[in-house]
Amino acid sequence: MKQLSSILSLLFAGLFWVFRVVLAYTTATGKDMGFPIQDFNIEVILLFVTLILLVFIYKRNIIAAIIYLLVYAGYFGPQLFNAIMTIASTEGMSDIYTYDTIIASAIGIAVALFAFLSILADRNRAAHPTDKKTDWFYKNEEYDRKLDDRADKNNYRTL
After folding, report:
1. Higher model confidence: residue 99 or residue 131?
2. What does the angle CA 14 – CA 15 – CA 17 come to, to the nearest 5 degrees?
3. What is the pTM of this model?
4. CA proximity to 111, closest of 159, 73, 55, 149
């Protein structure tokens, strides 16, 4: 999690999750924020699944990133497609909910795709992390040999 892309992908995913929690809460209380929810029960289940997946994405798990992308594409993809087809089929202006659905669905899919690509781009870094501050000591065999030779020659007399 030292690279900026990793931090930003998790930050945007967390912010989008908070946005979806607020939308679910306002839908449950009967307030309208302008962004419609397709199915409230699936939305709540998706929020809990996403929270678990974000923990695994923080741990740089590629399987969690794939599941996160597939879940978000499966949930937001049909919404996005239907909203685009609604705009394409109407000759006049569509309602504001259609455009809000396009914005929220596109952001949801883009955030999941960005998190997946971020983990995929530096997949090797998680398996073999390097730290220049400590690698000179732990990965330096010459230094270890010098310590071993010196330790064998130290024969101190006791008084």
Report:
1. 99
2. 65
3. 0.73
4. 73
